[in-house]
Amino acid sequence: MLQIPIILISVFLLTACSTMPSGPSVLVLPGTDKNFDQFHIDDLKCRQLAYEQIATSQKEPDSKDEGQQNYDIGYIQCMYGRGHRVPVPGDLMYDTQQEWHSPPPPNMPAPFRSN
Question: How far apart (Å, rounded) are the C-alpha atoms in residues 47 and 75?
Fold first, then answer.
């Protein structure tokens, strides 16, 4: 009889934790002037911080992918804040386009300058 509550609790815990990632899914490299030991310490701290952010969040991730994405965001922010090189998706780049002007004709005189 005691086995049924234990099984139900185990299933509940496994289901609740199924959206929790086990680590980052992004590549972060040591920052300029950062040695590997400092990178390793920062990596451990940022993994813990990202995990705690998801675990203490008011909203449980809807899927494993959403949990992983939230984890990666927290991890990247932490590692960037500690001076390491982090990935930047192409769609985060500013959408600025330089205005194109055709070159002047070859026989156009240079602009006048007063000294």
Answer: 6
pLDDT for 92: 52
Q: Which residue type, as a one-letter code, is found at position 16?
A: A
Report the half-sphere exposure of 2 (CA within 13 A, side-chain side): 0
| Residue segments in the chain with a per-residue pLDDT below the cut of 50 | 8, 11, 14-15
Structure tokens that stand for 56 in this block: 């203490």
What is the Cα Rg of the chain in Å?
A: 26
What's the gap between Cα 45 and its chain centre? 15
Q: In this structure, what is the dihedral angle of CA atoms 51, 81, 28, 47, given to the nearest 10 degrees? A: -20
Question: CA 95 to CA 9: how far, in whole Å?
Answer: 50
- Environment class of residue 49 by beta-carbon count within 10 Å: exposed (0-12), middle (13-18) or buried (19+)? middle
User: For residue 108, what pLDDT is reported?
Assistant: 75
